[in-house]
Request: fold
Amino acid sequence: MPITSAEPTSLADYLATMSRAVFSSGISWKVIDAKWDGILAAFDGFDPEKVAAYTPDDVERLMADSRIVRNKTKLDAIIANAGELIVVEREFGSVDAYLRSFGDG
Reply:
């Protein structure tokens, strides 16, 4: 099953797509699909600036949120990914430009 039905077009789309993959690792796609609306809400729509600025208090809030998969390692990875996407966008102008830097594939 594909991670999303559409190609990412914004930084938030890329973060959401990456996060769906992180959450689904080791878990049924059906579980993630059923929780996805709650996950989107809990993570501020995957706004990279907001997610990258999450503090340990935010992680505690997420760990208590039954709408999401509560795995601290996954939560930490998503927060770190948000920060890295911002760095890539600043350095390359866009995630698309970064990906194209590896060739057409």
In short: Residues 21 and 77 are 11 Å apart (CA to CA).
